[in-house]
């Protein structure tokens, strides 16, 4: 049985070009300290508010390869850790993305961790304390993490429910960084930088987004994200009429409910 492990060419996973990232607070300093102290990091916040961009920026800044995994409800421990595969009539071990990151000293980013099956999250526990080991049960090995390995994951408390919540035993292993929406002036600059749309128009988009965010819990599960604002700003920049761009880029994107849609369209009419 062949248990040779494929190691990666770290250069392939490096982010070459500096990603544009606009800090909101002291998140960079907190992350740098956590990295220096080998403490895993939890990025908490709604969808589309800059968590992935932040990880790309930190990966570029520290010149450490980034391995990102989008978690889903079918994600098993084997998907993360690895499995045996049949290849040319022999059995070969294939590292999963978490094992690859642990072995090669990468930053591993588990996006939307609560989506993964509960038993999956338990595998990260021994990686998150002083032991820094990953049990490879199928290989009968305990893999010691490379000194450069860093574990991060994101979590959207907005979707919180009794079924989809982080176990206290998992969350208490992490330092948490809050990624709620940036302040209005900062978010306007982000939308402007990402879309090249005139700053004044971007300020109006952010104002509208904050109106939608105030509707959360009253017909909306989540308000317009920074990502949606960037998309809408790109439509306007390319010549679409702002009112129409907001209706298809924001209102229709965040709800299917006719009453809520009408309300959002009225809001848009007051801003654009
Ligand atoms: P998520 O929180 O879902 O991971 P992303 O990081 O993918 O969100 O952000 C969505 C988009 O919003 C990005 O592609 C980028 O255009 C923009 N964005 C949000 N926050 C920032 C930020 N602080 N700096 C730069 N761009 C940002």
UniProtKB/TrEMBL annotation:
GO terms for molecular function: ATP binding; ATP hydrolysis activity. Residues 187-270 form the CbbQ/NirQ/NorQ C-terminal domain. Gene3D superfamilies: P-loop containing nucleotide triphosphate hydrolases. Residues 40-174 form the ATPase dynein-related AAA domain. InterPro entries: ATPase_dyneun-rel_AAA, CbbQ/NirQ/NorQ/GpvN, CbbQ_C, P-loop_NTPase. Keywords: ATP-binding, Nucleotide-binding. It comes from the Bacteria. Belongs to the CbbQ/NirQ/NorQ/GpvN family. This is CbbQ/NirQ/NorQ C-terminal domain family. It comes from Methylophaga thiooxydans DMS010.
């Amino acid at each position: 049985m062949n248990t040779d492990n494929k190691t990666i060419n770290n250069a392939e996973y490096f982010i070459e070009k500096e990603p544009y990232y606009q800090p909101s607070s002291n998140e960079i300093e907190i992350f740098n300290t956590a990295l220096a102290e080998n403490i895993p990091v939890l990025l908490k916040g709604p969808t589309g508010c800059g968590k992935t961009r932040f990880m790309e920026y930190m990966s570029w800044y520290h010149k450490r390869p980034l391995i990102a995994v989008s978690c889903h409800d079918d994600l098993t421990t084997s998907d993360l850790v690895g499995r045996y595969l049949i290849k040319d009539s022999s059995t070969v071990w294939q590292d999963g993305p978490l094992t690859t990151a642990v072995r090669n000293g990468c930053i591993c980013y588990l996006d939307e961790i609560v989506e993964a099956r509960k038993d999956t999250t338990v595998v990260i526990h021994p990686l998150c304390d002083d032991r820094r080991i990953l049990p490879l049960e199928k290989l009968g090995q305990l893999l010691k993490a490379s000194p450069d390995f860093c574990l991060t994951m994101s979590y959207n408390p907005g979707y919180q429910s009794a079924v989809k919540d982080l176990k206290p035993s998992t969350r208490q292993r992490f330092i948490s960084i809050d990624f709620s929406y940036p302040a209005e002036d900062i978010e306007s600059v982000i939308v402007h930088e990402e879309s090249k749309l005139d700053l004044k128009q971007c300020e109006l988009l952010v104002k509208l987004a904050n109106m939608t965010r105030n509707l959360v819990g009253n017909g909306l599960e989540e308000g317009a994200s920074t990502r949606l604002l960037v998309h809408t700003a790109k439509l306007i920049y390319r010549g679409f009429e702002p009112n129409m761009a907001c209706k298809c880029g924001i209102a229709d994107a965040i709800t299917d409910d006719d009453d809520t849609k009408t309300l959002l369209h009225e809001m848009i009419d007051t801003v654009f």
